[in-house]
Design a protein that fits this description.
The protein has 3 helices and 6 strands, in the order E-E-E-E-H-E-E-H-H. By secondary structure, the protein is α+β, with helices and mostly antiparallel strands.
Length: about 160
């Protein structure tokens, strides 16, 4: 009974918003894909990106939008990033950032192509189990193997989405 909801005083919908915090420029970047309201935080002076769930060991699109996710990942190419803090997983260092982003984009392309092939081949949902995370270019090891569950949720959600389309 003592809880009250307080709505934000400042909002932004698309694009980004800059803030001055403690003498630093911080940019809030709208990055839909995982969810419609995903936001990344970029600390300009330190070149650190807090990527929320836009960058993880395996992209999670089960409740999101694949095309918006790819667009958000591509937008990272223009940022000079020294360190990238993933939503889950380890910190990505400067020399690894481009490779991690490319791997995520390749994964999203692969699951879409493989799921579309299952549908076009008239195979049922059970055929999705043959689409392994490794066959889509990523490892099953991160997050103590939990990425496999994210991957399976991705292909199932994509199957539903593509079947309706």
């Amino acid at each position: 009974a003592d809880v009250s909801i307080r709505l934000p005083d400042i909002t932004f919908s698309d694009g980004e918003m800059g803030l001055q915090l403690g003498g630093r420029v911080v940019r809030l970047i709208h990055a839909p894909g995982h969810t419609r309201d995903s936001v990344m935080i970029y600390v300009e002076d330190d070149r650190v990106l807090f990527a929320s769930d836009v960058v993880m060991p395996v992209p999670s699109i089960a409740d999101g939008d694949t095309e918006a996710f790819k667009s958000s990942l591509r937008a990272l190419a223009g940022l000079p990033i020294e360190n990238l803090v993933q939503g889950h997983g380890e910190v990505i260092l400067r020399g690894e950032v481009d490779e991690v982003i490319a791997a995520s984009l390749n994964y999203l392309e692969a699951i879409e192509a493989k799921t579309r092939a299952v549908i076009e081949g008239g195979k049922g949902r059970k055929a999705l189990h043959r689409i392994t995370i490794e066959s889509c270019g990523l490892s099953r090891i991160p997050l103590n193997g939990l990425v496999q569950y994210i991957h399976q949720a991705n292909v199932n959600a994509l199957y539903d989405h593509l079947s309706r389309a």
